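Our collaborator T.R. sent over the components below with a one-line note: 'Predict the complex.' Nothing else. No constraints on interfaces, no templates requested, no preferences about which chain binds where. So this is a plain run: every listed entity goes in together, and whatever single assembly comes back becomes the starting point for the next discussion.
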Amino acid sequence: MLDPLKIRRDFPILERQVYGRPLVYFDNAATTQKPRQVIEAISDYYQTYNSNIHRGVHYLSQQATQAHENARARIRKFLNARESHEIIFTRGTTEAINLIAASFGKAFIRPGDVIMVSELEHHSNIVPWQLLCEDRGAELRVIPIDDQGEILMDVYRELLDERVKLVAVTHVSNALGTVVPVEEIIRLAHLNGSPVLVDGAQAVAHFPVDVQAMDADFYCFSGHKIFGPMGIGVLYGKTDWLEKMPPYQGGGEMISEVSFERTTYNELPFKFEAGTPSVSDTIGLDAALAYLEQTGLEEVRAYEHQLLMHLLMRLSEISFIRILGHPRRQSGVVSFLPGDIHPYDMGTILDKLGFALRTGNHCAQPLMNHFGIQGTIRASLAFYNTVEEIDRLAEAIRRTEIMFR
Amino acid sequence: MTIHEIEDRIVEEFSQFEDWMDKYNYLIEMGKDLPKIDEKYKTDQYLISGCQSRVWLHAEYRDDKVLFTADSDAVITKGIVTLLIRVLSGQAAETIIQSELKFIDQIGLKEHLSPTRSNGLTSMVKQMKLFALAFKTRNQSN
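Returned assembly:
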């Protein structure tokens, strides 16, 4: 069984105080904290083997290249991708989605084609497709959800037709915590001949992901939401698709031969990685995944499930709290409304009491519109949170409510 | 009273509280005195962008003074808007445009407001100055 107190000792930031109170960090869906193993790996890189990779013959360059490619290999294993070259480094989930929109869009999206997203999506999985649709004369089609926060699968089935050239859905809703049945979504899409991109930003830190088992065509996530550094992300793509897609950006690293008449592109994955990569960040991400592997994602899932149940129970004991959405499968995130109190008012006071929560629309305005609200308070969990922290939050919510009576 | 005099008075009022919670309680209470905006102005046109909570601000020009009314759906924001209105409403347009408000810092609220809220505060002051500027310009052209 996972020992959160032991884990907490690896995260220096969790020891700090804010406003003279111990920090309770419940904003893990926005970004996670970093264990010292990650911080040390980055520091070690800059202190002992910083150099540019892939082209240097010298010792440091080879060492850095090795570390960078080791990270790719670990990510392959982490996602259970078939090949390491199917792992492309990006700046984050947002850039990964934009890469697909630009490159897949250029190769495969024509006027009249349809791209499907769900009502649950983060703006990052909406706006790149809107831009693409505008550019290509294509249409954005939205799979609706019910008030529990579940995708309406029967409507999805009906919406799938021969015009649908790509389905882009989140694995876990960043605002409600809904675990989307991506396996079924992908199966149905493939029967229709449509590839699927899965936004895994809110999934990978909470349970094991197997891209081959779910048969995703594209899967992406951000390093900073999985205890790694900011500014690094991952795009997984099936070789067949990646081979057929044109480069995303031009520059160094992504070329094979350059002349003014004609340039040939490097092989995968480098075709999609123009410019010097953020080597320190891939090394940091490698350390983060190593840390998670060591902890065991199945243990993380089991422990977080307990935390989530405890949080849901504590919140539902408070009469004025309304929890938004009741999905069948939920992970990491709970959104709630504090009765008549504006989420922002309560968030401000809770902040002063040491709680890091998120208030607002969580970059999912269409989802907020579905519920006819401006925003919520969101508590999002990680494996270093504890049952005691949840109890303290419930107590703080009760205290805060009295202020606004 | 001049802007400075009102600011000083607010700073004095807040200085009686040592505990931040009392400060916020006072702010929440103060929000209840907000000169409420006419319901017909609670539209997107009068909505200030840059706030996580919604703030509607309306201004009119009477006897060479700018008069503000406002509302917000968040209580703490209401308190802050009330303070801004206490300071700036009823002043001459030019005075509002030239004003540099110090009381927010002095009552120790700015450090406690999150950056998004701070930006909201900045947008509010900016919008009040824009209203003043519009009245001034219109006055000159008449």
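Summary for T.R.: Chain B has a mean pLDDT of 87.
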